[in-house]
Amino acid sequence: MIISGIQAIGGIGVKNFIVGETSFSAVLELGIASINKIHEKVGIERRNIYDILNKLIEKGLVSYTLEKKVKVYQCTHPSKIAEEIKKKQLSLKELEKKIPQVKSLFNASKPEIRAEVYRGNGSIKALLDEVIEYKESFWLGGNSFEEYTAVPKSLEIWWEHWMKRRAEKKHMMHDLVSYGTYLRGLEPWKVEKHKKSYYKYCSLPKNMRSPLVIILFGNKVAQIIWGKQSFAFVLESEKVRESFMKYFKYFWKNPW
Q1: What is the pTM of this model?
Q2: How many CB atoms sit inside 10 A of residue 180's CB?
Q3: Of these four, 28, 42, 45, 242, which has the most CB atoms within 10 Å of its CB?
Q4: Cα 155 to chain centroid, rounded
Q5: pLDDT at 15
Q6: Domains and CATH numbers, the chain
């Protein structure tokens, strides 16, 4: 199988090892698949497939969306695999050899417009880790945890560490926030700190506020709703991304 370490990656037990590995590989090879297609490919009981898929979704390795009221599944970005490999202290060298093969299948199976659902804070972390693999990102809307009282403290702490890693990677964050909001430690007047942190700040007009955060990176548009169990809907389409960028540029004023 492509992912020989799926047992540790998915956090599933020895009993479900073969089921988990087979189900993940089936989704990866099919690209976008319903439970029926996965069942046809692997020949495993549906109940077991559902259990494994739910665990892979929680880990951020698989996402789903609805097509005509039917759930279809797809693998998320391969960078999440590398993160889980490190957490479980598996043999990184052996698994890294297989990442190019995963990426090849991942890219080969992309439709013209790709849609993904990220459910839970673990999945959101995987999404944000993917964001900083790009040179820059464009953020639109409410981006201060101060307004989201349901966000767990652990996610706020993780976010602070993520911001440091982002700056270390020299990833430029263009932040067009709701009026009157800002990130803790990056207040609007701290321009010199913004420069050192690879961060640019701009505010939307006073009468415009967004209850969610929109992130543009690569050819993707991610819409995040922060909460106890945060949720994101991601579209991958150059046309959709360009449409959102026009909106962003209309309100953006370069601070420095």
Answers
A1: 0.61
A2: 12
A3: 28
A4: 14
A5: 38
A6: 6-111 (1.10.10.10), 118-251 (3.30.870.10)
